[in-house]
Amino acid sequence: MNVLLAATPPKPLPSPRTTASVGAELRSLHAAGALELPLPGGARTADRWAALAGFGRRDLVLARLAEGHTDAVAILAEADRSPVPGALYGVWAAKSGGTGAALQNGSVTGTVRFCSGLSTLERALVAAGDQLVEVDLADPGVRRHPDAWQAVGMDASDSGDVVFDGVPATLVGPPGWYVARPGFALGGAGVAAVWLGGAAGVLDGALAYLRERGEADEHQLAHVGAMHTALSCAEAVLVRAAAAEVNALVAGTCRAAAERTAVEVLERALKVTGPTPACRDRRFAQRVADLPVYVRQHHAERDLAALGRTVLGAA
After folding, report:
1. Whole-Å CA distances, 99 to 7, 90, 105, 150, 278
2. Record's family (predicted)?
């Protein structure tokens, strides 16, 4: 495969979208085997990223949960472990604002933010200090706080804070393994594929608006051409990376390319459409609200500076 973005856009989720409807679709995909993606780092990494881009192009909330599950499965495979059959997984590793989990006597304590799939998932891989552990989310010591998530973008992602109060945990790899393993960079580049798909979905919405109107002026056409070019260039970066050894430099480049493309597509798409579909088309409004929230997993200039540092050191 030499492309990540299919010529025909996937059928989007019905609108309005809800946490329940997204969860049901995720479970349906899981049951059908659609979340059984090729493992990263092999000969079919591009196929894996194409599937992730397709989820993002269809719906970014669905993609967020699908990417988390598939990443967890890949991490377990890298640790020579198997997931619990039939279980939906997530990876909860944020350490925001001084929060984070810790491992004490084989149990997890602490608060983790930005946990998606609070009521949907059965298992999670949790970063506890410098260790990664697997927990059963049915344990009574897992306390969910969905009200912590106040965003309009990614509103149906079933996200929020989780407080762990002595939850039994199983180690996944030795201390420091989670971020030191080769798959860490591959996982980061896989998220970039989701962002790329989300940006393609925004362009799909702008094109649908123009086709419905039956006309486009030269300025609108120029923006369409620029968006197409930006998406094609970022796609080429990821396709090339999928065929190479994905290290920190390659993964950082993929993420920077996808983030820059998402920002440009968002700006240009709204110039093409004006306010009408953002105010009157719920699906388009969701797309332009979801993408800037999700893509901010890239830390803008901070991540670019880290990339620049890597480039300088590799020169």
Report:
1. 43, 18, 19, 18, 35
2. Belongs to the acyl-CoA dehydrogenase family.
pLDDT confidence of residue 15 = 86
Class of domain 1-315 as given by CATH = mainly alpha
pLDDT along the chain (315 residues), means of 10: 86 92 97 97 96 98 98 98 97 93 96 97 97 98 97 96 98 96 96 98 98 96 98 98 95 98 98 96 96 96 96 85
Q: Which amino acid is at 85?
A: P
Closest CA to 259 of 311, 308, 297: 297
Nearest to 100 by CA among 113, 89, 90: 113
Rounded Cα–Cα distance for residues 74 and 42 (Å): 12
Q: Which of 243, 254, 234, 95 is nearest to 187 (CA)?
A: 254
Residue 46: burial class (beta carbons within 10 Å; 0-12, 13-18, 19+): buried
φ, ψ at 141 (rounded to 5°): -80, 0
Which two three-digit tokens encode residue 77? 């495979």
Tokens coding 103: 């491992």
- Does the pTM exceed 0.85? yes
pLDDT given for residue 314 in this prediction: 80
The span from the CA of 7 to the CA of 235, in Å, is 13
What distances in angstroms separate CA 88 from CA 18, 72, 187, 214, one per listed residue? Answer: 18, 9, 18, 43
Tally of residues, the chain: 315
Closest C-alpha to 191, from 299, 265, 86: 299
pLDDT of residue 1: 44
Do you find a cis peptide bond into 16, omega within 30 degrees of 0?
Answer: yes
